[in-house]
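Researcher: Go.
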Amino acid sequence: VGATYNNSRFDLYNYFKYLKKNKYLTVNPVEDTETRTILATESHQVFSDKDFKTIMNWLEVNDPYCLLFVRAIYYTCIRPKELRYLQLKHINLAQRVITVPASISKNKKSLPVSIDESLGRELKALKLSSHKENDYLLGSTETIIGEKRIGENTPYNRFQKCLKATMLDKKNYTLYSFKHFSNVKKFKAGWTLAEICGANRHGSLVETETYLKDLL
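Model: Structure:
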């Protein structure tokens, strides 16, 4: 990410500046390196509390599938693409853990995600054990669980329908906004940087710190 790169560049620049000043080096090797453009998070705007409530209320009445999809993002911080690929065999309700396999994970690492009590109740209601382990948790807009993976644009399109119906489609809200809103709530509730890092499966605390700075 641009911000992570720039922060590291800044730290290295000051370190080598110190070495050069004290004549350990004759040049600062970082001096001529470029600063990278930081991508704005505005394309995934964080919800206001009021808008979040409006959206969830609309989905509860009109779209049970999209409601569970966005709740899963909110409670687990699992990315939308990873959720589409999630199969029942990746979910252990007894241990309250979802293991996102490396093959579908953005960072290519197989890491566990805790199942929140609220999400746990919703998953139990789906009677996961009565389905095949290779079925997809969010594979069908009609039955929720399905044998085939849901289309790439299906959750996105359903959420866009919600935004238009609630007249919130001009605010740059996306499916990622649920993940960002969840993290802002965690931060304000007193979660530590390490806890938020673990919940998001970030590679380092620096990544999490930069991520939160962008959001807040």
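Model: The longest helix spans residues 2-21.
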